[in-house]
Amino acid sequence: MNTHQTVLTLPTDVAGVRIGFIGAGRLGQALAWSLAHTGLKVVAVSSMLEEHARALAAPIAACVCMSPQAVVDACDLVFVTTPDSVIGATCDSLTWHSGQAVVHCSGVTDVGVLTHALTQGASIGGFHPMQTFGDPHAAAQSLPGCTITVEAGQAELMQLLLALVERLHCVPNRLPAGMRGRYHAAAGYTSQFINALFDQAVRLWQTWGATEEEALRALLPLAHGTLSAIQTAGVACGMPGPVSRGDLSSIDKHLSAITPMGPEMLDFYRTLCSVTVPLARQAGGIDEVQAQKFIDLLKA
Ligand SMILES: NC(=O)c1ccc[n+]([C@@H]2O[C@H](COP(=O)([O-])OP(=O)(O)OC[C@H]3O[C@@H](n4cnc5c(N)ncnc54)[C@H](OP(=O)(O)O)[C@@H]3O)[C@@H](O)[C@H]2O)c1
Question: Which numbered atom of ligand 1 lies nearest the CA of 108?
């Protein structure tokens, strides 16, 4: 019987919380370093390869490499920063107790994957930074200002996670339970789908012999300009391009030019262009009659 279960609670002072990591990969390293940099106590780490755990621990004074169970035993708050596919199994293989919390950093994985710890008295939650973590040093630099999505079933854990977000100079986003699939899909539109859009554009450039490098040199400033316009004017009013100006003939020329590239590329262009029509309407750049002409042209 666990005699701690009814008496222990999470520490209320964030500065006193002992933090541990299981999984010393890209996100684990960047997050551990960032938390430690704010003066928080990152005291324990475990990973599959000890050299990776050591790499996480090296820049943090008093952070010790140990087994996953020792991390759990030594910490008030444990981040399971393994790949999504093994978060549940990792949690299930360990013994938890009340007065501590375990969170994962996956965007799409339900917090319920940590239920084993909850049944043993621990609090469970999610802490998902909306940022891409490649090189951990660069990722740690890019963390301030990002949104971190927090989810917790228990109020005191929510308070703790919000305090961490504040320490990291990030922006908190509370996610209701059950929304992770939709939330993560939304993030994909402004993450990997940008790569998909660039792929289409680069393929067009390559048809006249330009390299990807040349194409990107031209396209990236354009993309930055669009992002700036979105930031200033919003999604609809910040949208550039022929549809926003009611320029039907340019779209006609685009369709003719893309047709030889094959039906897949043409259909994708038609789909994307169709989505811009209601945006142009919303921004007041075109009226209902013009909108219908675009729709007819794109369906033809
Ligand atoms: N990378 C991103 O851009 C990003 C962004 C947001 C959220 N996330 C989330 O962050 C989490 C970690 O992703 P990541 O990109 O950092 O993955 P990663 O670079 O592959 O790192 C995962 C780490 O987990 C360790 N590991 C694997 N199985 C383990 C086990 N059974 N026990 C202990 N450690 C284990 C690995 O150990 P070794 O290295 O020692 O072999 C590795 O260091 C995921 O939930 C992911 O969805 C990632």
Answer: 47
